[in-house]
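For the sake of clarity, the format in which proteins appear in this thesis is described at this point. Each number in the token line that follows is a code from a learned vocabulary of backbone shapes. One such record is shown here in full, so that the layout can be seen directly:
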Amino acid sequence: MKVKTILVSQPAPKSESSPYFELSDKQKVKIDFRPFIHVEGVSAKEVRSQKIDLNKYSAIIFTSRNAVDHFFRIAEEMRHKVPDDLKYFCQSEAIAFYLQKYVVYRKRKIYVGKKTFQELIKLIKKHKDEKFLIPCSDKLKALVPQELDALNIDWEKAIFYKTVVSDLSDLEDVFYDILVFFSPSGIDSLFKNFPEFEQNKTRIAVFGNSTVKAAEDAGLDCNIKVPTPEMPSMTMALERYIVDVNKR
């Protein structure tokens, strides 16, 4: 079957130069965007119930921009003055850059990883005497505590926000040729919204091994799997698939 419509389970890109828009124009396919999950902050009361005292920590580990937002939100709700000498460990440059929304960058001690958490671990290892806090969601990747425990450092996690299933009921009678997923939570949202969902002729595109596993565990056939050495991005893989099936 030819591909004419695609639903990406994420918010629409803010940049007009997004490769998704280029793909849509080039291959003449309709691409819609809809977050299947969203983030909701927990209250300061809930954070206190986790026995979290922000005064105890000398360093904060940020693995996402959501973590940055909710750390400073909770600090404000708790009337906690964030100390100037607090150290920040950011998993990527994008997160570190986003931190400027809340602190004067050049006046803070900020350590930046290249992209992966394993790369950030190398920086954390050099500061093993700090008391670390990792503000996170209820869906923290298992890799993170494993890596931190292996360092034998003093650290704690605190759930500052939760990943919540979005209401997709308005899509009940809408059908797409390809559904695109980037996390196991997206797959979970699909079946919580539509318990009777049957794949039929819908193609499924997935990013990451954990998403592939979640999809297959749910009984879905994954037609497009990324990343691969040949296809490192979702848009590249989608384009190759569309060109292949639409020329038949």
About this structure: The chain has two domains: 5-36+169-246, 40-163. The two ends are 9 Å apart (CA to CA). The chain has a mean pLDDT of 94.
